[in-house]
Design brief:
alpha/beta, TIM Barrel, nine-stranded mixed beta sheet, five-stranded parallel beta sheet, 39% helix
Length: 511
């Protein structure tokens, strides 16, 4: 299909005004074929030759921007948004995804919950997601297929990994002398799936889905976090990342408790999780270092020298009280950053515009001089250029450019967010909420337009989701009630970490 957008403005991150136009833009197949005077001529020459054609008149009040990249996400909690009060991560995870046989999803439940977020993202202009999917209690081929089929049917671009710890709980956290035998047994239990079986699941994911849907669906790999896996499994996933040239996801130093692991978990021998990873030879340009809140200067130097990308999740970090990442220190070292929602249960939305605004605001309370606060240009660069880099696809995503993939979003400049029109970048970061999105195109296909998703029956799916997860709710409540027994132990770990001197502070307003 070819689509000619006429009389539109086009986002250009290198232009002083942030955009060019009014102009014309031609999409042929799944690529941007032409921007400017030749677009209409090429369209006219191709009429009747390349299948369906369409002209969309922008009337000099529409802006085309790159599709938004949600560079860090966990889809399995899509149906749980708003259901938990704010807690530190280590306590939050007890109730977010408790282990209970009655909570094991059917393939249909996995499909529906994945689709819930895909629909919200497409409606608000997110065309690409990196889904670090924790499939409790462990991934199976049927559930992997359900997740991937949802992304296939939705029309989104998705890169999906299997976020599954592979060591005992006791090896992930500070050593504890808890007296509760039930807690001790749980901490010492073997993981639900070992490395060999997990690698089999990756073989299924990659062989069945990597590069499918014309390249729209791809695989990634995930260690979850360095403390949650063995060095051998970490190295095996790094090998897959290298062979297939796919991203490797690793949560690092999200919380202060994770910072204390250097001294409270003997296997790290005084090293931070970043330093430990670097010493293993596994910190690379293919890695997405997720969060990087409690990093010190040495960690940042290691990340910078490796070429790794940092995924910044400011809303989630606030929801869980994790702290504020040192954005300016990242930028000063030339570290590429991208932006992520994290998950619906700790952002309570799948709308990335809230993350964009928070990234532009939260660092203003860092205590730095105002010249060092993030500029709208830097935030948008993280959103688009950083997002493409996180996917290892900077050569075809993250910009509206001839030859790039046609992942495009049309914004109405006559909307409230841009009226009156003052400064494009400032209004994109501080004013836009997703309400100005009129059209979303992924891989050259229009998937959202005129207020409606064109790929699935959204109303029917929402009805099904309400019914499915209302019936699941009692089991969720029972599992969360049972998890209360572990809360004192984890609360104690978090409390001890809060009192520790780690040579830095990432909390705002603390004494």
């Amino acid at each position: 299909m070819s689509v000619l957008f006429t009389d539109v403005f086009v986002y250009d991150g290198d232009h002083p005004a942030g955009m060019v136009g009014p102009t014309d833009l031609l999409v042929l197949g799944n690529r941007v074929a032409s921007i400017g005077a030749d677009a209409r001529r090429l369209f006219d020459e191709g009429l009747g030759q390349d299948g369906p054609h369409r002209v969309i008149d922008g009337r000099a009040q529409k802006l085309i921007v790159p599709g938004l990249v949600n560079a860090h996400f966990h889809s399995p909690a899509n149906h749980l948004k708003g259901s938990l009060r704010s807690l530190p991560l280590e306590m939050f995870m007890l109730f977010e995804s408790p282990s209970d046989e009655q909570l094991v999803p059917t393939p249909r439940e996995a499909y529906v919950r994945t689709m819930l977020a895909a629909l919200e993202m497409l409606r608000t202009g997110v065309t690409t997601v990196q889904d670090d999917a924790f499939l409790m209690p462990f991934p199976t081929s049927e559930i992997i297929d359900a997740v991937m089929q949802a992304y296939a049917d939705s029309g989104m671009r998705a890169s999906v990994a299997l976020d599954q710890p592979e060591v005992r709980e006791a090896d992930k956290l500070p050593l504890s002398q808890t007296a509760d035998p039930h807690v001790r047994a749980a901490l010492s239990a073997s993981p639900p799936m070992g490395a060999a079986a997990l690698l089999d699941m990756y073989d299924h994911l990659i062989s069945r889905w990597h590069g499918s849907e014309g390249g729209r669906l791809t695989a990634a790999v995930s260690v979850s976090a360095p403390q949650r896996v063995s060095p051998e499994y970490f190295a095996a996933l790094d090998d897959l990342s290298r062979v297939y040239r796919i991203p490797l996801f690793a949560h690092m130093l999200e919380t202060k408790l994770q910072r204390t692991l250097a001294t409270t978990q003997p296997r790290f021998a005084g090293r931070s999780l970043v330093e430990y990873t670097a010493d293993l030879g596994l910190l690379s340009e293919r890695m997405n270092v997720i969060h990087a809140v409690w990093v010190d200067d040495h960690d940042l130097d290691l990340i910078a020298s490796s070429g790794a990308i940092v995924a910044h999740n400011p809303v989630s970090n606030l929801r869980l009280g994790s702290g504020v990442a040192p954005f300016r220190k990242l930028k000063d070292r030339g570290i590429t950053t991208c932006l992520g929602i994290d998950e619906a249960i700790c952002d309570d939305s799948c709308n990335l515009w809230g993350v964009v605004k928070m990234a532009g605001l939260i660092h203003n309370v860092s205590g730095l001089e105002s010249d060092e606060w993030p500029s709208p240009h830097e935030v948008l660069d993280s959103l688009w250029v950083g997002g493409a880099a996180a996917l290892l696809r900077s050569d075809e995503l993250g910009a509206v450019r001839e030859g790039f993939l046609a992942d495009l979003v049309v914004l109405d400049l006559h909307s409230r967010a841009f009226t009156p029109f003052n400064d494009l970048r400032g209004q994109l970061v501080y004013c836009e909420s997703g309400n100005s999105v009129e059209l979303t195109m992924v891989d050259g296909r229009i998937v959202f337009e005129d207020g409606a998703i064109s790929t699935v029956d959204e109303s029917a799916l929402l009805d099904e989701a309400r019914d499915l997860f209302a019936r699941k709710r009692p089991a969720v409540e029972r599992a969360r009630h049972d998890a209360e027994a572990f809360l004192p132990h984890y609360k104690g770990l978090v409390h001890d970490a809060a009192l520790a001197d780690v040579g830095m502070n990432r909390w705002v307003g603390s004494a």
